[in-house]
Design brief:
By secondary structure, this protein is of the alpha/beta class. Helix 2 (about 25-45) packs parallel to helix 3 (about 55-65), helix 13 packs across helix 14 (about 375-390) and helix 30 packs antiparallel against helix 33 (about 885-895). The N and C termini lie far apart (about 70 Å).
Length: about 1000
């Protein structure tokens, strides 16, 4: 240990020499050993650890994925071992053993040395010599400690470097096997996977089971293979057992040579030569290679594939020799462009192609960043559809961390309309939720929560029937700064074997899945595609930094897929005086740096640096003052809806409270301050069985204005009408904060907004009111709080004129982009045509160019390709249309000046659209009828909705106005019958589109 950390040697030896003579001192030395090693690990992993709290420091490392359950238990013993009835000396001896085992683990992690190391108790004479040396070193302990503190500042690691360290630490946690035990362990794992291991002289019985294992068969030339695999009596694969510590990659090359020799003069039928399925194992690690893959690559797997899986692969290879494997079919058969891509946005199309290209290249972990609410789930569904239909994936797993999202994913998959005649996805590919019983053989897609996978693979208790499985993992993590959750260890599960899926898609789960629960994903022999809105260091590390595509919130705003947001802070002083203002410390475009660098440095709540214990909230004695300040500021925040200084209708608002008791107090204060009835403000909690009904009422009724919540309350597409978010409790996680923002940054059709917020014309932004400092996590690029009214007009004109001067700064460019983005939701067809003619591009592209010209990631790519000249060229090109076209600047100011209502939609376009829909409806009624009067009401209202806003009716609108008056989705299903209703809706949407 001396070359890696001298202090560990000192404290470990001190514990050993005092175990029998001064056990209390030995306990102290053991504790110091654990604290030094913990600090050293934090330094090596680049993880900031909480100061002075060893249990919290250990949990931080565990959540990062550094510690297995066994290693964590050893550390915890050093800090506070309960010896029970054991004597002090016996406890001290136990801690000496723990120190030695941790030292061996750390040594293996640093060196990769696989040699087994057993602790040997020293003789008394040796202990006396050791004690003398320890005493001389302890005199220098203060100096050694100062030197140590200078060495262990958190290192700056890339995501791939951290992942390699985590892999080494986890691999080192398993004691090496003796050479004599390796073959026995391999045979045990084969039996576990359903293989029939034949004994000596039983080779002729290789057809007694689908899959049999020949042990030690003699090959041509007198050589022996360790094991051969037979399927249906034919030899298909080879297994080589190697001494622990052997380079398995080198061993796989040897196995390849053996796979060729095994077929020469074989006494048994051979399926193909050379044998395609090759395994190499040291009893712990298992390396696999399929020689049929294009440019075959070896990969670590958690267990042997079942005989039925190899049999399926044989059938697929025989049916298509040109593309014999799943990976080969991805390159051969995925169409690069066809009509079905038309249902995707450009950002979604780009993400799908990036995923497919990565999978074609054999990349096993693929990460996509998509801002929350930009169609991430649909992108995952579309990816799965193409993998199943064209690449021939047998089965795909979707993983999410909330049951409500799992239900929404299942519904989205089943309702997905395929391009070949409009068939529903579920008509061809069976979708089901994963349960404890496993999956039906017919299932093509399984949807599972992290909790369900944990219960099946790691034996954790299933979610209790108290609604807790509806609570987001983000909220669970928020409840305690350092939750004491042990890392998961998984075991083979017969109903869900490692080869159960060809692809795993993770839908923006909490980062804990990639840290302490990472074994759940590592269990499956399948590529993992992850979608994340905020890929933190832990997430990036799991995916080896392989971020193949990124669609940020700022890009979504530029594209009109999301609305911008502005932040107001309420600062509560001890004197109960409030300061309500827009913070001026926006991040700034040059200070933000690259997204990749920020994400790699971001550890969310890994090491919460604020005060430990209860989260900070707006307490009861300040609630009335805070709510009053919010009420009084509403006319200022929404000036275009104010007459005579009075706001007509309070915008739909979500208030984020700490817990049920706090939410009850908030509801009471809001009703008092606004002098409103009970329906005006209500609490919604996911644990409440009435949550779905209350959410529907909040979305669809004008009376329910303010919802008080304690967690993410629904899928984001359901919350389009929200225009205010009031935060009354601390938010520790940056990712959680962005999830909350996404509740209100989704755009909404003007007709739908007016139905629930009378007097509103268009939604242009989300207003965030922060009373606890939560906005520190993610300041807006530019905090524009005066986008309406004379002040906003003056600011826009000033920025447009600055483009003419040629002196516009990067910060001003960003502000101009944000202000122009606020005009996108108001843009009508005629206005859009005018601006495109003047600018040579749509307003959305103009905004995107402005924001790209100050985006540090985009500029870094330009700088690498063409130097500073390319960067300056990009900035000049972004402002050129504005600087050189006075008519464009006037048109934009005119667009700002004109009454909003005149530019929501073009009346003649609406009329033509309505007439077209009426003709199509008449044809549909004649062909599909007759219908009852109740059914006709639903059909006609769906047609009205199609004519008003969408090219195709969105089924989620069934829970909106006017459908909510007749029960929403439930009422629709009742009117037509559950099965017939879904078929009719599909047919009606196609007929009217």
């Amino acid at each position: 240990m001396l070359p890696y950390e001298p202090l560990l040697v000192l404290h470990g030896a001190s514990c050993e020499v005092r175990a029998s003579t001064a056990p209390a001192d030995a306990l102290m030395a053991a504790r110091q050993f654990g604290e030094v090693l913990t600090t050293k690990l934090g330094h090596l992993a680049g993880v900031q650890l909480p100061a002075g709290d060893q249990p919290a420091r250990l949990q931080t490392l565990a959540r990062a994925g550094m510690l297995t359950a066994g290693v964590l238990a050893a550390f915890q013993d050093l800090h506070g071992f309960d010896g029970g009835e054991r004597g002090e000396q016996e406890v001290a001896a136990h801690l000496v053993d723990r120190c030695f085992s941790l030292a061996g683990w750390f040594f293996r992690a640093q060196t990769g040395d696989p040699e087994p190391m057993a602790f040997v108790s020293a003789e008394a004479s040796d202990l006396r010599i050791l004690a003398h040396r320890v005493a001389s070193l302890e005199a220098a302990l203060p100096q050694l400690r100062r030197e140590f503190d200078l060495r262990v500042a958190p290192a700056s690691l890339s995501a791939s470097q951290r992942e390699q360290l985590i892999f080494s630490a986890r691999d080192a946690a398993y004691e090496p096997l003796r050479e004599a035990d390796i073959a026995a362990e391999v045979q045990r794992r084969l039996t576990e996977a359903g293989w029939d291991v034949l004994g000596a002289g039983e080779e002729d019985e290789r057809s007694r089971s689908l899959g049999c294992v020949l042990v030690g068969p003699r090959l041509a030339g007198g050589r022996r293979a360790d094991m051969l695999l037979t399927v249906g009596g034919q030899v298909v694969g080879i297994i080589e057992c190697k001494r622990d510590g052997t380079d398995l990659a080198d061993a796989m090359e040897q196995a390849g040579a053996m796979a060729e020799g095994a077929t020469d003069f074989s006494p048994w039928p051979v399926w193909r030569s050379p044998l395609p399925y090759r395994y190499v194992s040291d009893g712990r690690r298992l390396l696999f290679c399929d020689a049929h893959d294009p440019e075959p690559q070896s990969r670590l797997v958690s267990g042997f594939h079942q005989p039925s899986t190899l049999a399926r692969w044989q059938r697929e290879a025989e049916a298509d020799s040109a593309a014999p494997t799943y990976r080969a079919r991805q390159a051969a058969y995925l169409p690069r462009a066809n009509e079905e891509f038309r249902q995707l946005r450009v950002s979604q199309h780009r993400a799908v192609r990036a995923i497919e290209q990565a999978l074609e290249a054999g990349q096993r972990r693929v990460l996509v960043q998509m801002a929350t609410g930009t169609g991430r789930s649909f992108t995952g569904v579309f990816t799965a559809y193409r993998q199943l239909r064209y690449a021939g994936a047998a089965r795909i797993l979707f993983v999410t961390d909330r049951k409500v999202i799992a239900k929404q994913l299942i519904a989205q998959l089943r309702q997905f309309s395929m391009s070949d005649g409009g068939r529903r996805f579920d008509d061809v590919f069976h979708v089901e939720e994963l349960t404890a019983a496993g999956l039906a053989p017919s299932a093509s897609v399984a949807v599972a929560t992290v909790q369900r996978l944990s219960a099946m693979l790691a034996g954790t208790p299933p979610a209790p029937e108290d609604g807790s499985d509806r609570v987001s993992a983000y909220e669970t993590a928020e409840r305690q700064a350092h939750p004491a959750t042990a890392p998961l260890d998984v075991t083979y599960y017969e109903a869900l074997p490692p080869d159960a899926f060809d692809l795993v898609i993770v839908d923006d789960c909490h980062r804990g899945l990639y840290g302490q629960r990472r074994a759940l994903l590592e269990y499956f022999d399948a590529p993992v595609v992850g979608f994340s809105a905020t890929p933190t260091a832990t997430v990036l590390g799991f995916f080896n930094g392989n971020l193949v595509d990124s669609y940020t919130y700022e890009q979504a705003v530029a594209d009109g897929v999301a609305v911008d947001y502005s932040v107001y802070e309420i600062r509560v002083a001890d004197s109960r005086q409030l300061a309500f203002a827009a913070p001026i410390d926006a991040a700034g475009v040059e200070a933000k740096g690259s997204r990749r660098a920020r994400y790699e440095q971001l550890d969310e709540e890994l090491a919460h640096t604020g005060p430990h214990g209860s989260a900070r909230i707006v307490a009861a004695d300040h609630l009335a003052a805070v709510v009053t300040a919010f009420r009084d500021a509403l006319p200022t925040m929404f000036p275009d809806r104010t007459q005579g200084g009075v706001l007509g209708v309070v915008p739909k608002t979500v208030v984020f409270a700490q817990d049920g008791a706090h939410a009850d107090e908030v509801v009471e204060r809001i009703r008092d301050v606004f002098d409103a009835k009970d329906t005006f403000c209500q609490q919604i909690t996911q644990r409440d069985d009435r949550a779905a009904q209350m959410l529907r009422e909040f979305r669809t009724t004008p009376q329910f204005r303010i919802a008080v919540v304690t967690d993410l309350i629904s899928g984001f597409s359901d919350m389009r009408a929200i225009e205010c978010l009031v935060i009354l409790r601390e938010v520790r996680s940056s990712a959680y904060y962005e999830q909350l923002l996404a509740l209100g940054t989704q755009p909404i059709a003007s007709t739908e907004l007016r139905a629930v917020t009378p007097g509103a014309v268009v939604k242009t932004e989300l207003v965030v009111v922060d009373a606890v400092g939560a906005s520190r996590h993610h300041r807006p690029l530019v905090n524009v709080t005066d986008a309406s009214g004379p002040a906003g007009r003056a600011a826009l004109e000033r920025l447009l004129n600055r483009t003419v001067d040629g002196l516009v700064t990067p910060q001003e460019t960003a502000e101009l982009g944000v202000r122009l983005a606020r005009l996108i939701p108001k843009l009508g067809e005629a206005d859009g045509t005018t601006i495109q003619k003047l600018a040579g591009q749509p307003l959305q592209e103009l905004v995107a160019d402005l924001l790209d010209s100050v985006d540090q990631d985009h500029l870094a790519q330009l700088r690498e390709a063409g130097g500073e000249k390319a960067v300056e060229g990009e900035r000049y090109a972004a402002i050129y249309p504005l600087a050189e076209t006075p008519a464009l600047r006037e048109a934009l100011l005119g667009l700002y000046d004109r009454p909003t209502a005149s530019r929501v939609t073009a009346p003649d376009r609406r009329r033509r659209r309505a007439e077209t829909v009426r003709r199509r409806l008449a044809a549909f009624m004649q062909q599909a009828g007759p219908f009852t009067p109740a059914q006709l009401w639903w059909i006609e209202k769906i047609a009205d909705g199609t004519a008003a806003a969408e090219p195709r009716f969105d089924p989620t609108h069934l829970d909106g106005v006017p459908f909510s008056a007749r029960g929403g989705t439930d009422g629709f299903l009742h009117a037509f019958g559950p099965d017939a209703a879904i078929d009719l809706l599909d047919e009606l949407r196609r007929a009217l589109a």
